[in-house]
Amino acid sequence: MARLLRSATGLLASLALSSVTFALTPTPGTQPKVAAGTKLELLQPLQMEPGKAKVFIQGGKISSKIERKYEPYCYLASKRSKTEILDALTINPGSFTVTKKGFKRRDYSAALGAPALNVVSADVNLNSLIFLAMGDAGGFLFQNYYMYLQSDEHPSIHLLVCGVYGDPFERGPISSEEMRIAMGDVLIIDGLP
Q1: Residue-level pLDDT, tens digit, the chain, 193 residues
Q2: Are 163 and 72 spatial neighbours (Cβ–Cβ below 8 Å)?
Q3: CB 89 within 8 Å of CB 138
Q4: What is the value of pTM for the model shown?
C-alpha cells in the first residue's frame, strides 16, 4: 500500500511538473518583437486620474481601468511621488523610446481567495506539485509584455504594458496584431510587425 501511494504521488508530481513547465514556456513566435531603441508615438493626450499611476487603452479607447477583462489591453504607467500622484496628470502627444522589454505571466486568483501560483517564479515544492496535479490550480493568467520607456517630454512615464487575460493552455501571449487593436489610434509603435 505504501509503495502504491509513493508511485501515485510520484506520478502526480510528474504530471504537475510537466504542467508547470508548459505554463512557464510561452508559445514560440507569438510574442511581439519590439527591440530596445524602438520609437513609440503618442498621438492623443491621455489623462491619468488623481491617485492613479496608470492609464489604460483598450480597443483604441482610453480609461482608468480595464473595461473588458478578456480583450487585449495596454497601459502607460508613471513614476510619481506620493504628493504628485494626488494630482491628475495630462500626458500630451509625444515620443518615447523603448529601453528594454520583458514578458511576465501572473496568476491573480489569490485576490479572489483561491491559492495562486506565480508562474514567473520557478520555485515549486512538493505541495505545489500535488496541488497542481489535483487540478485545483492554474487557469487564467495576466500575460503581459513590458516595454520600459524613456522620454525627455514625459520623464515620469516609464512603462508601456500590453497584455491579455486568459488561460495559457488555450492561447498564447498578446500578439502584435492584438497590440495594434488595443492601442487603436492612440499610440503607435514603429516597426511593429
Answers
A1: 555 444 544 544 444 444 443 334 444 335 677 889 999 999 999 999 999 999 999 999 999 998 888 899 999 999 999 899 999 999 999 999 999 988 776 665 444 444 444 444 334 444 344 444 444 455 788 888 999 999 999 999 999 999 998 887 787 788 899 999 999 999 999 988 7
A2: yes
A3: no
A4: 0.69
> Residues 6 or more apart from 28 whose CB is under 8 A from it?
none
